[in-house]
Amino acid sequence: MRHVGRFAVLGVSAFSLAACASFSPNGGMTPVASRVGQELGQTAAKIVTAADEVSAMAKVEALLAKPLTADSAVQIALLKNRGLQAEYNALGISEADYVEASLPMSPAFSIGKLIGGGELEIERRLVGSILSLFTLPARRAVAEAEFKAASFRAVDATFRLAAETRRAYYNAVASRQLVALLEKGQNSAEAAADLTVKLGETGAATKLEQARASAFYAEVSAELAEAKMRAGVDRETLTRLMGLWGMELNFKLPGQLPPLPDRVPSSERLEADAVTRRVDLMVARLELEAMEKSLGLTKASRYVTALDLAGMANTTIETGEDGTSTADAYGFEIELEIPIFDLGETGVRRSTETYMQAVNLLAERAINIRSEVRSAYIAYRATYDISWQYRNRILPLRETIDEQALLEYSGMITDVFDLLTTASESIDSNVAAIEAKRDFFLAAVDFQAALIGGSGEAAAGEAEE
């Protein structure tokens, strides 16, 4: 009978170990890298070894050797940003929790000794939880769902960093382009102010015209100073997101924003695509699945919360006049913890309410995502139309106005004031055109984030929760 029990224990142990999960070779990064490559066309890598670091640095140096594009800036951020690497470490921690949950709980061994009345009694106990063994498959399923959710959280963190880096890139390039435009405007304003002063010396320009020319020069200079400050701050924001420091700070940015695309996608099936592709919604679904499995586990063990089996061996050594005698005794003990006061109802009720809360939050998130993608597309489409107007209509008209104003001034048909007014309006139109194009590219980033995840609104919602 003892052998039968021993074989039964060995059989259960073998079955439990066969169901154990094992660590992946890359800390659970395979689905993350696959999703990032599919949606962004970029490489996501977890930097663990010195070889990983060398490989990443080689890629970064190759990208920094040329003027940055939005894509190359994102790729550098995915390889160098330490905050993202911390998110990948969190994924590795989740995998460790999953592997641990798939293992049976270790038994406890105790030994005790009693001495008295010429007797020495030694008791040995080996205690293991039968309930934990029976619930092992369910606990493993819960941990597996939570690990999958952690994988999508890592994907969402990657998408969020990519979106933030693109926004910072377009802001930095637009700021640089504005500085170049205002520097050109400042040179023209300075030349106009000097010319007006010389004309004033000959009596060809009044003091009012001289003051207006000097004020125009001062105003453009102030705008240029502010633009330089903004360009420096925007560049540092991009630097920070890319995780660069030291000699890497000398990266090159292009002088102007990329050209507008010829057309933008239509609004068909945007909501359905977003609901299918948004990783934050996938995280919520997997968390709900894990909660559902956990609720089933709570119901299954509501009447017995602890079931321990103890194997005992007792040795008594008695010393008397006839010498020393030894007696061995064996047995077992089963310990049950039964919730007789609430019959497990509080745990089940708490789990049910928590589950329904998650169901409602998931439904709310799906509704919000549909609204987010509609709003993002409205901004995307509108900013494209505005930028198109500046590129195709307003700036060409401004160029014509500038040419005609200069001709009329040269022919002494108009005065300096009209020429300065035209120059000021031209600068304002060109600044607005650059800002409109920047706003379009920022809206394009927000639109993509609304479709696949990593949007600022989703991140803010998670922070509130």
UniProtKB/TrEMBL annotation:
Q: Which residues form a coiled coil?
A: none
Superkingdom of the source?
Bacteria
Could you confirm whether the keyword Signal appears in this record? yes
Keywords, in A-Z order: Signal
A single Gene Ontology MF term assigned here is: efflux transmembrane transporter activity
Check the record and name the PROSITE patterns matching this protein: PROKAR_LIPOPROTEIN
Q: Which residues form the signal peptide?
A: 1-21
Q: Which PANTHER family match?
A: BLR4935 PROTEIN (PTHR30203:SF24), OUTER MEMBRANE CATION EFFLUX PROTEIN (PTHR30203)
Q: What is this protein called?
A: Copper resistance protein
Species for this entry: Devosia soli
